[in-house]
Amino acid sequence: MAYLKIRRFQEAEDDCTEALNLDDRYIKAYSRRSTARTELKKFKESMEDADFALKLEPNNQEVKKQYLEAKSMYEKDLLQRTAGALHRTAQGVEKKQETGVRLQELSSPTINTRTVTPVSSLKDDLIKNRKPSKLEQKPSVQELAARAASQAINEAAQNITPPSSAYQFEVIWRGFSGDCALQARLLKATSPNVLPQLFKNALTATMLMDIIKCLATIFNEEMELTVQYLENLTKVSRFDMVILCLSSADRTDMAHIWNNVFGNKAIPMEHAERLDDLRPKYCR
User: Which of 65, 106, 177, 232 would disulfide-bridge 192, Cβ 3.0–4.6 Å?
Assistant: First the structure.
């Protein structure tokens, strides 16, 4: 807090990060780091911090306000950067077109004979060469945001690194929301052995079910990895409490996955025995 008051925002960010390394559910640290990152123009990270703090305390109105402000600033910055990139691309295309026209003019022979172009031909040429109106050229806010989001996801997918905290894991995971293949790549990049230390007391029912569902999609090709994940998830400190708090729908999904995927009779014995031992811990 002291660093924020004297406007030493980088030190404030570092200080909050150290605090979160000790306790990754420290809401004030997320909130203060969000403030520091906003001042450092790290709008995406600021929004993610505020969002995570809000997930920890959904009824905290101050944190909710901070999240909405951070989200607004991130979206504004995203649109500005996307619009700038599109503008630079358009300028590049326009320059290439101008260069092509000049070369064509230089290479074309001079024609002295005057010819009369039919009106219908002129009309066709005008239609073909008509420049789009400003309304047609300007993409919508949704299109700009979608392009930027797609580009960000592609860049992130190429540089997946093992997360060092539950917060980092969840941020990356949510960034790949809807793309199970990318989420599976995150699981493969994260050693199952680090799960207890990674999640500590931050494992939620939603995250657990998301991981289980993703593991089910790669089980046939990654049996050993899947079993190791299932084994190490049970070692996370809040695992038993999370299982007890699963909704009826989650319990149904869990049983379905176990019956149809992890309980398949074609599974090799070395994996089947370990899965049989794990089943009572997941399906209660």
Answer: 232
